[in-house]
Model the fold of this input.
Amino acid sequence: MNQLISEKTRRNLTITGSSSVMGGIYNNIKIVGEGTIEGDTDCKKLKCMGTMEINGALSAADQVSIVGTCDIKGGLKGGILKTSGTVAVGGITQLKELNISGTIESKHDVYSEKINLRGMLHTAGDCEAESFTARGIFEIGGLLNAGKLDIKLYRDCKAHEIGGGQITIRKASLMHPLSLIFKPSSSARLTVSVLEGDHIYLENTIADIVRGNKVVIGPGCEIGFVEYKEHFEQKKDAVVKDKRKV
Done:
């Protein structure tokens, strides 16, 4: 009963023009223009069309939608984030779903059940998801880990380490509808120190070490060492300096 009363008494917050407000507990937050929120903020939904700065952490149970620029000094957690603008997060990012058509920059780790990348993702820490689909650019300072990774290389991408169950990395197709807006580079490469998974298929990948159960090294790859258990295949125009079955 207390929870029902609490939900009913949450108030909406709307900022139009330029304004600064205190953080707190809200229902829906809408910013059109320039808004600054001082302190930790909890809400159900947040929509920003303009510029927003939160001097604290943000928790949004349902959805955060950003068209413009958003700077969150603390962490970000909640449901779904959709951005076609630029989002900067100072703390840990924990979301159910992350849809990026713009840019997200995190100074810490990023955790999500599902990451759908059509823009740019940069994190200084780790990035973990159940499903990671990329048709854009990413730079991961730590470990990129997901049950399923499906990556099409449009521009150069980097990760310190990559781990997962099923890992597929391919060169982007010029015939894909997205390429009409975001033209792929024919020289796009993924650079990683160590890549480890169960089923691995790689194209245009530069890696020191690749470990897997079933491994296929496709065209455009430069691999220092491959360690595999069941199956290994090296395609034409792929370079593998050394390999070993374990």
Notes: Confidence is low (pLDDT under 50) at residues 1-5. The two ends are 59 Å apart (CA to CA). Residues 109 and 125 are 5 Å apart (CA to CA). The longest strand covers residues 11-55.
